[in-house]
Amino acid sequence: MGDGWFDRYEYLLFERPSEGVLLVTQNRPEQGNANIPPMHTELYEVWSDIARDDETRVVVITGAGDRFSLGGDMSGTWQPPEHDRLPPGQAKARSFYEVAGLAEAMINLDKPIVSAINGSAVASGAALALCADISVMREDARLSDGHARGGMVAGDHASWMWPLLTSLSKAKYYLMTAAPIDGREAERIGLVTFAVPATDVLPRALEIAAALAAGPQHAIRWTKRTLNHWARQQVPIHELSTALELLSASIEGGAQQGEAMRLAMRDRERRPH
Fold first, then answer.
1. What are the DSSP calls for the chain, one per residue?
2. Rounded Cα gap, residues 221 and 51, in angstroms
3. In terms of Cα–Cα distance, which of 26, 3, 24 is closest to 111?
4. What separation in angstroms does the CA of 253 have from each of 77, 106, 118, 140, 248?
5. C-alpha span between 268 and 73 (Å, rounded)
6. What is the dihedral of CA 106, 109, 110, 115, to 10 degrees?
7. Residue 83 burial by CB count (10 A; 0-12/13-18/19+): exposed, middle or buried?
């Protein structure tokens, strides 16, 4: 896009569909926009660049193709280059800061974020979808935290944000079972803002973003900042769940126990819908 802030990104696309609006598209469509470590790093770092970009008043985030994001890429086909390989302890520490930091960066960005959930959103993909301030979801798409099915604690964002968005009872059910939820039901229980037909997802998100971009910026941003103190009060829950997510993934047998379920989830999510 030539804006300087965003030239370095490899896995994210940037467009300006209207004045003040930045459209960010996750761009690994062949893999359902599942993120590999360098892509996750970009998703973590992009919010600080957006904060510094004076041309951007509102952000819309979506996924290329017919998926929003299937979360972390579990295929095992990507390996870091030799020069970027870290000792296991350092790699875990880096993962903790990035996993915890991605959701917190979205919450702490004063500029409004609108998610256009154009297809499946799982795990870290669900974090991107639901840590937005306003979410527009395809009504027949599926959303799932997915961690418990993979033998891991519901980290990333879910133990933190789901009880705030819906209820503790609903959060317990969906996070402990990792059951998928479609857009219509997600809207009904308050997990997303709107559920709309597939063709309306991005246009509706951009319409909302344009209205926000044209509004009084200090009032909108400070309203977001004020409301998100409800989330900031619960940051210890977020950091504990993230730490336990990484611990549960490393326990011998934990990841193995979830492997068959993880593969089944991946295959199911790749089916067209």
1. ---STTTT-SSEEEEEEETTEEEEEE--GGGTTPBPHHHHHHHHHHHHHHHH-TT-SEEEEEESTT-SB-SB--S------GGG---HHHHHHHHHHHHHHHHHHHHH-SS-EEEEE-S-EETHHHHHHHSSSEEEEETT-EEE--TGGGTS-STTTHHHHHHHHS-HHHHHHHHHH---EEHHHHHHTTSSSEEE-GGGHHHHHHHHHHHHHHS-HHHHHHHHHHHTHHHHTTHHHHHHHHHHHHHHHHSTTHHHHHHHHHHHHHHHHTS--
2. 12
3. 24
4. 22, 33, 35, 35, 9
5. 15
6. -30
7. exposed
Tell me the sheet residues that pair with 113.
59
Which long-range contacts link 181-189 to residues 24+ away (Cβ below 8 Å)?
A: 181/142, 181/143, 181/144, 182/139, 182/140, 182/141, 182/142, 182/143, 183/117, 183/137, 183/138, 183/139, 183/140, 183/141, 183/143, 184/139, 184/140, 186/137, 186/143, 187/137, 187/139
Helices 235-250/254-269 angle, 10° precision: 100
pLDDT of residue 207: 98
Instruction: Parse the chain into domains and list their residue ranges.
Output: 12-269
**Integer Cα distance of 137 and 194 in angstroms:** 6
> What is the per-residue pLDDT across 65-80, written as a single tens digit (0 to 9) for each?
999 999 877 666 655 5
**Which regions in the chain score pLDDT beneath 50?**
2, 83, 253-273
Q: pLDDT tens, 45-60?
A: 999 999 999 999 999 9
Q: Which CATH class is domain 12-269?
A: alpha beta
The first and second tokens of residue 148, run together, are 């418990």
